[in-house]
Amino acid sequence: MLSFNNVSAGYGGVPVVKDIAFEVADGETLAIFGHNGAGKTTVMRCAVGDVTEVTGAVSYRGEAVIPGAVFRNVRRGIGFVPQGHNVFRELSVRRNLTISGLNHPDAKVDDIYRLFPILRERGGQLAGSLSGGQQQILALGMALMTQPSILLLDEPSTGLAPIIVRDVMSSLTKINRETGTTVVIVEQNIPATLKVASRALVMKAGRVVFDGPSRELERKEDLWAWF
Ligand SMILES: Nc1ncnc2c1ncn2[C@@H]1O[C@H](COP(=O)(O)OP(=O)(O)OP(=O)(O)O)[C@@H](O)[C@H]1O
Ligand SMILES: [Mg+2]
Questions:
Q1: Domain that holds residue 173
Q2: Assigned domain for 156 exists
Q3: Measured at the alpha carbon of residue 59, what is the angle toward residues 57 and 60, in degrees to the nearest 5?
């Protein structure tokens, strides 16, 4: 279980996440929505220990997520796909995958290739020469190379064509169902994300203003007033 207990976080003394509390059970699929600047990325970064100005408690499977110790947190099974196409542009697709793997990287690459055949097809190509959407898929493959038990994705559909969005979302459903990986997705594409996530949080100005089943959120008539 990932747990946020009275967590506040910010940058340079300015709080941007304000006293939030929520839990994500193992195997759950959670979406986090909210307007630009609401604090969604900051919440994700807190979950992987990438924000140092934090108060309150963030923990994963009963142990504190240590601020500033991203690598250690990743080793504990917390996988993070940051916003934007974070790939090593000057390295091949295959090399991007192998350097991201913690254990048995070569064996794991084949699993990723099975999941995303486009990466096998482009294995020898420089990552920087992939299309934006292909780079996004590579970034997801790189996070999966760490064999996470919880996968945090920050706007994975940005810049992707609708058909690719569908592929990415259905691969997340598949990963969740087949391996029990917990999935937390920050997204602007609400309809596509609600197909994957059974529960949703909505953030507004650093606070959680809704936490409930996706179906309940879909029915809310004043939903759009939050964005
Ligand atoms: N490294 C940083 N230094 C200073 N301020 C930051 C930093 N990162 C984020 N902020 C500020 O914190 C607030 C929350 O940002 P955050 O990136 O968490 O929002 P978000 O909900 O992910 O927004 P978006 O939908 O635009 O990605 C914003 O006002 C932003 O300007
Ligand atoms: Mg963001």
A1: 2-86+150-226
A2: yes
A3: 170
CATH number for the domain including 197? 3.40.50.300
Q: Per the structure, how many domains does the chain have?
A: 1
Q: Which residues are 92's β-sheet partners?
A: 126
Q: At a CB cut-off of 8 Å and minimum separation 6, what does 122 contact?
A: 93, 130, 134
pLDDT-based confidence at residue 16 (cuts at 50, 70, 90): very high
Residue 105 has pLDDT above 80, yes or no: no
DSSP state of 38: S
Ligand 2 centre from 106 Cα, in Å?
32
Instruction: Tell me which residues have their CB closer than 6 angstroms to ligand 1.
Output: 11-12, 16, 34, 36-42, 83
The C-alpha atoms of residue 75 and residue 62 are separated, in whole angstroms, by: 15
pTM: 0.93
Structural domain contains residue 107:
no
Cβ pair 20, 37 in contact under 8 A: no
Atom of ligand 1 nearest to the CA of 12: 4
49 inside domain: yes
Q: Summarize pLDDT for 40-57 with one digit per residue, the tens.
A: 999 999 999 999 999 999
